[in-house]
Sequence to fold (159 residues):
Amino acid sequence: MLRLKILASAFPLLAAAMFAGGDLLPGARPCLAIGEGSVQITSLPWQAQAHVSFTGDPSLATVRVQLTDDAAAADFAVLDDIDGTKAQATSHGCAINAATRFVAISAGPAASRPIIYLSPGGPADYRIFVASKRFSAREAAALIVGAHGAPRRLAAAAL
Fold:
């Protein structure tokens, strides 16, 4: 009975920690620093200010992100120490503060959220280069779209 009471008293503390901005399993999440703030991937959907999803159908996409193999041609490049010695020892992710913007990757597309089509070619709104052990191409695409939003489509002007 005492074990049950201890477990029951620990549950509210775990729930409070999750709502306060942490995960149950702490660890560095993919993020990027922008000025005084940062943009970070979160697994907690209620914590995110931006939600993005991915599609394999380019006709459903609202944002097209091209994977490029040339860092100089990319709008956003993620490159860390592939060998892992120095970068992994010194990298602890971005600092979380009031200016941190969280991005969640949703399982299903929604019309009100950016839907990303990630491809190695074709027309693109953003071009990314990813050579990282800590970032996947999907996470990098979600961060760049979460930081900048979906580009606005200009309607043809009627003359």
